[in-house]
Structure prediction request, 191 residues.
Amino acid sequence: MIRNIGSVKEYILNHGIVAFKTDTVMGLGANGLDRLAVENLFKLKNRSFKKSLYLLCYSFAQIFEYTHSIPDYAYGLMKQHFPGAVTFIFYSTGKIWTTPVERGETIGVRIPNSKPLLELLAEIDSPIVNTSANISGEKYFNRKEELDKFFGENVLYISFEYNISMCNIPSTIVDCTGDSPVVLRKGAVLI
Prediction:
């Protein structure tokens, strides 16, 4: 766990953008209940407002708080792949800003396979929307020095007590809003 959790929480609750290692690629996150924070994240990355963010979760209970109408087949897939490098798309409860202009009818959710990150998410206890740490369309950053060079003071880098190994492959994205799962992006996990 990190020692300065109070200051991280305060930063996030004041429209801040955080950066951290995940089990896949370096991530950028913001409070999904804060439209301004989400807008700040999109502008920082030069990300199209048409590309939604997804929610990093620390538990199934948190997933259920922000989604509804999860099909039976999806429960099995979540049990099989969480924690892990799969993002599942479900219908949203409409509480989370997935872009700066809408809360979105659907939302992607993922429980990362990283104990220190899960502990951080639980401690923060705010829904953290996430995207890869990079300029949109460019390669992923995998070192703090790259974050500092491109984002400078606009991002708070969160370092953990011990290193998180990243596979440097983004998560697989699976749409579970229909009668059967549809893989939208092949990533770190085969489904």
Summary: Helices lie at 5-13, 35-45, 60-66, 72-81, 115-124, 144-151. The chain is about 30% helix and 20% strand. Strands lie at 18-20, 27-31, 54-56, 67-68, 86-92, 106-110, 128-132, 156-157, 172-175, 182-185.
